[in-house]
Amino acid sequence: MAFWLCCGNSDRYDFMFVVVVSLYSCSKKRGKANATWRVFSLKELHSATNNFNYDNKLGEGGFGSVYWGQLWDGSQIAVKRLKVFSNKAEMEFAVEVEILARVQHKNLLSLRGYCAEGQERLIVYDYMPNLSLQSHLHGQHSAECLLDWNRRMNIAIGSAEGIVYLHHQATPHIIHRDIKGSNVLLDSDFQARVADFGFAKLIPDGATHVTTKVKGTLGYLAPEYAMLGKANESCDVFSFGILLLELASGRKPIEKISSSVKRSIVDWALPLVCEKKFSELADPRLNGEYVEEELKRVIFVALVCAQSQPEKRPTVLDVVELLKGKSKEKISEIENSEMFRSPPAVEFNDGASAAEDSSDFISAEKELKQELTENTGAMNDTKIN
């Protein structure tokens, strides 16, 4: 059983746009008794969110807004409400619901359900009381210093383990394409839940990559993906490396040095590592209260993940092992590698780039019909470049 979502012609598109989301096939594989999601009515979600009251709003992005809500049984939910009804929004809604219905892992945000009535498209999740990693590093909770070093290490390892599930255990394998602080949510115990699968791609066995429109957040994009549109697991590893640097240092992926000059977090961190100035890399909000060996480990792993040559990046399985300190030999190898021996010559951005800050999105809107086929057709052996 499946449902069909259709929208008619528009000024920009002269074709009927049809999305098929095979949710019930996912629940069949698990058994109906184990299906954890359901279809919500629009009336039910209006009631839960007090008619999407502004006071209930948790956040807002290019996709729309997220609201806090409470169901009749007292359970708390988060509801993502798409901003506009369009071909692009329809596709991202379909992709996210499809993938969320497939994944089951303690470090991935679970699907509670969805609603598709009229022109409303809503996705329902469990509510995460501690919001996102972004909110603690750069947002509304940044002054509260709730992330001590132990919590940061747990977040690093937990989010990496969630990505391991996507890359190595899900069938077909999944690349996220938008790993960043705002997409790592934190539950009541500050355990990490990787979220937001609107840009995700399914990769069948045997495929080395997919060539696709570039989507994601500037500052986190792997160079080969940003330039050539070649996406694979290594692109997520690069983004995760940036996230690790952010988690350890409290800095943003891209910072302005002046009105016309910007610097990436890698360009800031790498010379300090080469000069063994690890204390200068730690987030000042930690007040020096961190485990030095673990800080060094996180920084080394982050920079190896975020290097420009994809073939030299570790897999996320390796990342988990390294973060847990299970292989001192591998950490020693990394520490003594060529990239950490002498500070590189750094060329700063002169401001001509579109990367005004790390919250900017790349989200192409052309050839949506082809993009939909790439996302929803992977299960049916569509052509992979």
From TrEMBL:
Residues 363-372 have a biased composition (Basic and acidic residues). Belongs to the protein kinase superfamily. The lineage of its organism: Eukaryota, Viridiplantae, Streptophyta, Embryophyta, Tracheophyta. Keywords: ATP-binding, Kinase, Nucleotide-binding, Serine/threonine-protein kinase, Transferase. Signal peptide: none annotated. SMART domains: S_TKc (SM00220). SUPFAM superfamilies: Protein kinase-like (PK-like). Gene3D superfamilies: Phosphorylase Kinase, domain 1, Transferase(Phosphotransferase) domain 1. InterPro entries: CR_Ser/Thr_kinase (IPR052059), Kinase-like_dom_sf (IPR011009), Prot_kinase_dom (IPR000719), Protein_kinase_ATP_BS (IPR017441), Ser/Thr_kinase_AS (IPR008271). Coiled coil: none annotated. One of its GO terms (molecular function) is protein serine/threonine kinase activity. Residues 373-385 have a biased composition (Polar residues). ATP binds at residue 80. Residues 342-385 are annotated as: Disordered. This is Protein kinase domain-containing protein. Residues 52-331 form the Protein kinase domain.
